[in-house]
Amino acid sequence: MTSDLLAPLDLAFWNIESDQHPMHLGALGVFTAHSPTAGAHAADLLAARAAGVPGLRMRIRDVWQPLVYPPTFGSATREPAPHFDPLDHVRLHAPATDFHTAAGRLMERPLMRGRPPWEAHVLPGEDGTSFAVFFKFHHALADGLRALMLAAALMDPVDMPEPRPRPAEPPRALFPDVRKLPGLVRGTLSDVGRALDIGTSVARATLGVRSSPALTSRPTGTRRIAGVSLDLDDVHRVRKSVGGTVNDVLIAVVAGALRTWLDERGDGSEGVAPRALIPVSRRRPRTAHPQGNRLSGYLIRLPVDDPDPVGRLRAVRTAMDRNKDAGPNRGAGAVALLADHVPPLGHRLGGPVVGQAARLLFDILVTSVPLPSLGLKLGGCPLAEVYPLAPLARGQALAVAVSTFRGRVHYGLVADAEAVPDLHRLARALTEEVETLIIACGS
């Protein structure tokens, strides 16, 4: 195992978090238990296997390197921890009556920054027929795809495609290679132009914002989690009727559910079109290396104010097609790429300020997490449900993550517990919206 400097976006995630807004992502996996002791056995297996997964031994350490080119001030490196005890990261809890409620309390606790930033919490079910494993990975350690690979490495052995090997990085030089200066200058000018384009798009996207106070929050540090499981065949029926992609349908379902939820709680949906950030991975699915985040995104206005469910879906499809035509390196949704233009010390000093700016950039996060269609097991117990959970940005009340797994769609909802005490009503609205779309499409 070797050490490497954090990529700019990783460094940003590392520096913008606070105790009330930790930047870890999560996943709640529910397993079918074959005995009442299956949860305890699963905890033992996770601890034993974690010692053999190199990526789980990596910690993040602040570094200062003034004598290299370019000089590095205020950066951080991902490196093997000198002392690694898996028992520090795997916890067996008392039996739980509701896995999502228990995971919500665990989600609000920051990861310890002095050791490898991940945890696995095993939650036995009170009835003995199931147990859950709640994983937490800091966003600076792994993005969604990398976190998936790390968690899958702890499951029972299966035939999974090997990631392509990562090419070795050349050592950092004391001085720049003068032969490369013309190309570096051209690349820098191109990057500056792209940064200006993104910045202009961000400013333009703030004009005429029509959001809802229900989607903003005074930071409380509390978390509430809910999960919704839907039939993927129902989503395909809607897609075949109206067109577009599965992801278009899943985003439109969020828009319709928000409309129902806002109207039911008395906030009202009239004139509401919140800005949704849709993250886009810039790495290929079979490539889990390098470990750092490779993310951009699309920014769209969710048509919450449209009373027609088919009209909402068509509006989402049009907005997503427009973003795809422009590409993930342009537009307000590509704001994550601006991290590449900030020096490490800027991330260190400006992190707290940037962390408070999320509300200005977007109103809600809606992210899709790819999962393999493999029959994963832990201790012989099959994985039945997987709910992805996204970090909740400062000043925002709700984040939505969605994945498809073995014929089911799983929505993972993360909310500020004080701002959204009725998260279960939004979860119910997601199920109702799919039924509404099926009827509206005549499917």
UniProtKB/TrEMBL annotation:
Residues 292-436 form the O-acyltransferase WSD1 C-terminal domain. GO terms for biological process: biological process involved in interaction with host; glycerol metabolic process; response to hypoxia; response to nitric oxide; triglyceride biosynthetic process. It is an enzyme of class 2 (transferase). Residues 6-249 form the O-acyltransferase WSD1-like N-terminal domain. It catalyses: an acyl-CoA + a 1,2-diacyl-sn-glycerol = a triacyl-sn-glycerol + CoA. Keywords: Acyltransferase, Glycerol metabolism, Lipid biosynthesis, Lipid metabolism, Transferase. This is Diacylglycerol O-acyltransferase.
